[in-house]
Amino acid sequence: MLKDYIDYSGLACLSLPQEVGHDISDVVANHIMDLYSSNQPEDLGLGFISPREKQLHLALGPDFELEIDQSPSLLASSSSNSNSNPRNPSNSTTGFVCWKTSPLLVQWLLYSEICPFKTLFFLRPEKAKLKSVKSRQNRKATNTKFIDVSLDQPRITIVELGSGVSGILGSTIGTLPSTLHFIATDHQQSILKLLRSNIQQNVTGRYTSTTMETKVIPEKARSAPGSGVSAIDVVEYDWEDDSVDPVHEIKDTLLQGQFPDLIMACDTIYNEYLIPFFTDSLLRLMGGTTVAILALQLRDSDMVEAFVNCLVEKGGEAGVEVYYVKDEFLSDELKRGFVVYYLERKEVDQDAL
Ligand SMILES: C[S@@+](CC[C@H](N)C(=O)[O-])C[C@H]1O[C@@H](n2cnc3c(N)ncnc32)[C@H](O)[C@@H]1O
């Protein structure tokens, strides 16, 4: 279970048991007050990395150099969306550019010694052997070090909500030997198209997919024990669309009937309208052992408070507990204007049954 790899000393729980007599909204209000006084947001603007450039070059830690295509013009154009929802004030174009939260999250998750989730992705590294691979198209001379998966290492399935076009999580965490399957999702075909293309141009080849063209990997190499080859997929998952069973494609088609081990989302809360849709979509995908990591940029405090209240309330009804990462366990960059939440299903007290 992923829970066994989490350092709970870095987390504080917001979902207190009812019998303690606390009003949950007071607990959340105090958390938000502490958050905005300790974690003073710098002037982060709206939160794009660049609202003008069509191409970004991002170096994430020693292992990942990404070239990301984005579309500032589609960000600015509300009419670009044939399926935009007039009730959604975001006009659904936010996904056309890359936002600041996900690069910071990746660097913290993969390279920070204080991150409470650091062993999730490089599980049991002492058993793993180091392996060198060449970076994309041999264009860069650097050799990249990955920890190769050991024969008995559990590998995890991950679903990302609201990935946007950048594919940063898919192109980094999606390629780790500890990842069995990474599924990036969003809600518009034009976003999904650019997302696929960014992942294809940034992943060096060792992956399989049923939703993207990949280099053919010989079956023998792919299924060899410890090969570390992951699957990466990009599919539609619209939080507002209740006309179809949105979980079906992800769980039943791509994950062989299993819920994902981990759900991730970066900067998916930026207006109040989306809060209940996002929360329901997240909880719907959480099976008994699924955990979730959500990273947010601190914008309007009322909106963040409304989101956390919704998460704690709806989560409580679904048996899911909400934690936040304590300030001292965040990277210096995340401490300046970001927050990370962690969700898991409550342990059932067997004695009480
Ligand atoms: C602020 S952007 C963040 C994108 C990306 N996670 C990043 O950090 O660059 C919010 C994302 O939520 C997605 N989104 C908005 N409404 C959605 C919906 N109803 N269903 C699924 N995704 C949605 C947008 O398309 C966009 O990709």
From TrEMBL:
Q: Would the keyword Ribonucleoprotein turn up in this protein's UniProt record?
A: no
One GO biological-process annotation of the entry reads: methylation
Write the record's keywords in alphabetical order, separated by commas.
Methyltransferase, S-adenosyl-L-methionine, Transferase
Keyword Electron transport belongs to the record:
no
Q: Which GO terms describe its molecular function?
A: S-adenosylmethionine-dependent methyltransferase activity
Could you name the Gene Ontology cellular component terms for this entry? cytosol; protein-containing complex
- Family assignment from sequence similarity: Belongs to the class I-like SAM-binding methyltransferase superfamily. RKM5 family.
* Name the record gives this protein: Ribosomal lysine N-methyltransferase 5
Source species: Babjeviella inositovora NRRL Y-12698
Q: What is the lineage of its organism?
A: Eukaryota, Fungi, Dikarya, Ascomycota, Saccharomycotina
